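Morning run. Coffee first, then this:
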Amino acid sequence: MTLSTDTPPRPPELSAIEARVLGTLMEKARTVPDSYPLTLNSLLLGCNQKTSREPLMELDEAQVATALDTLKPLGLVREASGGRTTRYEHNFQRALGVPEQSAVLLGLLMLRGPQTAGELRLNTERWYRFADISSVEGFLEELQDRPADKGGPLVVKLARAPGTREQRWAHLLCGPVDEQQTAAARPTGEGAGGNTTQRLTQLEAEVVQLRATVEKLCAELGMSPPGQT
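And here it is:
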């Protein structure tokens, strides 16, 4: 089965490993372009990394290679030409017929599981900078309302979990979402303690912004940023 690049049919359901491999390629293309396309070993390390992954995985080379062999005929992944070592790159946007912003959101959902629009905006900082949460919600709604002639919905807005204020979004590339299972896998409760995951994500984003501001100021003053000689 080959995905058309003109009017993409409903994409086949991916396994969790295939989604992790595809999402990792999409991430590294944007965050470490100098090392992209990826070798099999680099891809394996990216799939198994302990940060920015939900759930954590312990894959081996054979599992990643098998996933690549499945994704390549679907037009979602291709081998890069040139070089002695085989490298791999994704072809997600063309294969599914989605814009950059939608691809970014789907990639983050594949790597980090269901998230609110606010979490997605913060987590996509290194991939793509959305102007505001409304912009994120707009692209999510387009993906949810995607007509059948373009492949059908690619995300779903989950029911609000008990003790939470915002609804989360999940991708549908691995098939229908088991909302009970996803709710059980994620801590809830935004009372006095707050949503720890969301607060940590916000703090990480603020640190990135502060670091960029410090580097800019140091450059204007002709100074080396802290920690650099």
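The chain has nine helices and five strands. Good start to the day.
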